[in-house]
């Protein structure tokens, strides 16, 4: 079956020849409450031959295809019904055409969109510049606007007019920024005018040693120290911290090297199928900044979903697709720097994997546009990659909620420590000096009071097995302490 597939978007088909030949509307990102009866009722006044409503296996997305008796009938339905509201969500319609790339020369990226604006408003705003295939405003899981969206024109000329015609354009005092979507675009990080000497470095060859990195960067000034962590096999973990003697040396190294392609595909161990990530060197955050960032991210991800990244999970790929075919599909959204595909052991007829795009914007496009992609009738599923630390944070929060809901233990009810509790308390006490600056936040005066208070908080949001793990793993224990100090567990000061 794989031999019948070609390496183009023609593979993104509905597995019915009827839908390929007959005029068909695609309705993407429908409310999960949508049923076939809803769609049939919406199109009841039109000559519809068939209706298909599908949901992804994980229940994350719902989409539909409506097959019409004639092109004229289909176009009339789009004109009359596009952006109709169904179960609280706009129904965004477009003609289904596997030959039309999901993005390309006619695609523009729109940011600064007011939260009150709907996709229909976006369509009205940009339709004066040319024929629109489809447009969409990105939303979160609760349907709240992310304040950016995409408009796909039928021609590059129309896209050019939109970009030129919207310079300085405002809606409700919001400056609307319009640009051509460019998958090759890179994010350039500029450091503020600060005095610093320590730099964080990554995206160098996997075979690099500390001495190789020193030789690369010491041309910009004397290096006093390099932190170059290694894996158990002796290879680099993929990042390092370089401390220059003078601030101007660190600034010069960033100006000359950051976001530059310093290495070849061969040096980086990359296949010709992948892009080489540009060298990365920026001002290194201090430990306090890293802790605040971790806690901020944890609060953000728990409240609003995972933070957008370049790395995405891939799911629901039919097992007969090979890596190159899937890679060709994913490459339509932007430049890929890494990619891996494996057999899903929970479902032998499916594949899963990871893909890394060169920019966050490309990953955002992939997340939004992949909802329209079918692989032999299977909805391609992309989701944000989560690190081990992020999974630990989520697990911690779930434990806390579960224990709170079951009323197993309350912080103010803990009068005496058990033997395990005492071991946990001792572990907290052993690292308490790292948190002396935070004693005032908790209204404690010494390490003993700090460790007692933190221990009670941890006991109130963990089970026995989790506490044992924290006793054995200080890095995880520090994560819980950092989360507590940042308010992830809604720490309340004792009076």
* Uncertain ranges: 1-20, 186-192, 287-307, 403-411, 488-495
Strand content: 15-25%
Give the CATH class of the largest domain.
Alpha Beta
Strand count: 21
Can you describe this structure in just a few lines?
The chain has 16 helices and 21 strands. By secondary structure, the chain is α+β, with helices and mostly antiparallel strands.
Description:
It is a single chain. By secondary structure, this protein is α+β, with helices and mostly antiparallel strands. The chain has four domains: 2-180, Alpha-Beta Plaits; 198-283, 2-Layer Sandwich (Alpha-Beta Plaits); 311-384, RRM (RNA recognition motif) domain (Alpha-Beta Plaits); 388-486, no CATH class. It has helices spanning 17-21, 36-42, 71-81, 119-126, 156-165, 210-217, 247-257, 265-268, 287-304, 323-330, 360-369, 388-406, 419-430, 447-461, 464-472, 474-486, and strands at residues 24-28, 48-55, 62-68, 84-86, 89-95, 107-111, 132-139, 145-153, 170-171, 174-175, 177-180, 198-202, 223-227, 239-244, 280-283, 311-318, 336-343, 350-357, 374-375, 378-379, 381-384. Helix 9 (287-304) packs across helix 16 (474-486) and helix 13 (419-430) packs across helix 14 (447-461). It is globular. The N and C termini lie far apart (70 Å). Residues 1-20, 186-192, 287-307, 403-411 and 488-495 have low confidence and may be disordered.
């Amino acid at each position: 079956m794989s031999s019948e597939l070609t390496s183009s978007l023609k593979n993104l088909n509905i597995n019915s020849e009827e839908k390929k030949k007959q005029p068909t509307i695609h309705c993407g990102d429908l409310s999960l409450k949508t049923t076939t009866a809803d769609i049939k009722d919406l199109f009841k006044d039109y000559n519809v031959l068939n209706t298909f409503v599908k949901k992804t296996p994980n229940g994350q997305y719902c989409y539909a295809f409506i097959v019409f008796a004639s092109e004229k009938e289909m176009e009339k339905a789009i004109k009359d019904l596009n952006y109709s509201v169904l179960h609280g969500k706009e129904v965004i319609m477009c003609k289904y055409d596997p030959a039309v790339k999901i993005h390309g020369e006619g695609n523009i990226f729109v940011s600064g969109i007011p939260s009150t604006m709907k996709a229909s408003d976006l369509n009205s705003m940009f339709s004066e510049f040319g024929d629109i295939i489809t447009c969409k405003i990105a939303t979160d899981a609760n349907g709240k606007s992310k304040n950016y969206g995409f408009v796909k024109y039928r021609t590059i000329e129309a896209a050019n007019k939109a970009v030129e015609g919207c310079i300085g354009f405002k809606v409700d005092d919001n400056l609307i920024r319009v640009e051509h979507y460019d998958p090759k675009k890179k994010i350039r990080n500029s450091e503020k005018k600060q005095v610093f000497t320590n730099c964080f470095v990554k995206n160098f060859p996997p075979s690099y040693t500390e001495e190789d990195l020193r030789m690369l960067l010491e041309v910009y000034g004397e290096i006093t120290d390099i932190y170059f962590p290694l894996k158990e096999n002796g290879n680099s973990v993929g990042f390092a911290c370089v401390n220059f003697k003078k601030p101007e040396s660190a600034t010069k190294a960033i100006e000359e090297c950051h976001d530059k392609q310093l290495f070849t595909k061969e040096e980086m161990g990359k296949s010709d199928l992948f892009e080489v990530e540009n060298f990365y060197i920026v001002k290194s955050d201090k430990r306090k900044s890293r802790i605040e960032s971790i806690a901020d991210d944890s609060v953000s991800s728990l409240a609003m979903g995972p933070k957008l990244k370049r790395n995405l999970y891939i799911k629901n790929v039919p097992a007969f697709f090979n890596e190159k075919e899937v890679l060709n599909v994913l490459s339509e959204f932007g430049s890929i720097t890494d990619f891996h595909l494996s057999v899903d052991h929970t479902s032998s007829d499916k594949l899963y994997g990871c893909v890394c795009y060169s920019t966050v914007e490309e990953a955002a496009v992939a997340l939004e546009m992949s909802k329209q992609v079918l692989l032999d009738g299977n909805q391609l599923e992309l989701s944000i990659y989560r690190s081990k630390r992020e999974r630990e944070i989520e697990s911690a929060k779930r434990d806390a909620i579960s224990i709170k809901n079951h009323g197993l233990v309350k912080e103010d009810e803990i009068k005496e420590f058990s033997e395990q509790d005492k071991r946990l308390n001792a572990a907290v006490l052993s690292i308490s000096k790292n948190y002396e600056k935070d004693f005032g936040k908790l209204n404690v005066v010494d390490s003993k009071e700090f460790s007692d208070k933190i221990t009670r908080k941890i006991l109130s949001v963990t089970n026995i097995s989790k506490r044992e793990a924290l006793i054995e793993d200080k890095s995880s224990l520090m994560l819980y302490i950092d989360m507590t100090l940042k308010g992830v567990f809604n720490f309340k000061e004792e009076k």
